[in-house]
Amino acid sequence: MKSINFEEHYVVEDIQKETMKHMTSDPKGVPMQTMLKGIEEKSGFTDADEIKHHDARIQFMDKHDVEMQVLSYGNGAPSNLEGERAIELCKQANDTLAQYINEHPDRFVGFATLPINEPKAAEEE
Questions:
Q1: How confident is the model at residue 12 (pLDDT cuts 50, 70, 90)?
Q2: Domains of the chain (ranges plus CATH)?
Q3: Which of 75, 80, 86, 123 shows a CA-CA span of 20 to 30 A to 20?
Q4: Is a pLDDT exceeding 80 seen at residue 43?
Q5: Beta-bridge mates of residue 84
Q6: How far apart are the first and last CA of the chain?
Q7: Is 12 exposed, middle or buried (0-12, 13-18, 19+ CB in 10 A)?
């Protein structure tokens, strides 16, 4: 039986690089890159969430009878930032996701990434 995976993540490499400049650690002080490396080592995934690796994502879906994925932005989301940079990066993430969904409309849908610290901009986005 085919399934729909509801909580799948994606990242955009350029957005990740910019966001990580502003998100250096979690509340306990563990560096963000250290946390992500640990997750990658345990899961076996490295940059598999990078949205441009759609061939690998679709191969995984086909292998495991996944008909569709519902995508949302993964770790280091620009929605955690503030100000104009958050607004700009969230728009970029959403535009990238929309393009990806348009290229594979039968395989993907997604949630917008909103600049939650900028309510007016989040409403407009």
A1: confident
A2: 3-124 (3.20.20.140)
A3: 123
A4: no
A5: none
A6: 36
A7: buried
- Bridge partner list, 4: 68
**Distance between CA atoms of 97 and 106, rounded to whole angstroms?**
14
Q: Could you give the 3-state DSSP secondary structure of residue 62?
A: helix
**Is it the case that residue 125 has pLDDT exceeding 80?**
yes
Higher pLDDT, 13 or 33: 13
Cα(69)–Cα(9) distance, integer angstroms: 9
pLDDT for 21: 77
More confident residue, 113 or 2: 113
Residues composing the chain: 125
Q: What are phi and psi of 59, to 5 degrees?
A: -60, -45
Question: Burial level of 65, CB count in 10 A (0-12/13-18/19+)?
Answer: exposed
Q: Give the CA angle between residues 107, 77, 48 to the nearest 5°.
A: 50
CB 69 within 8 A of CB 108: yes
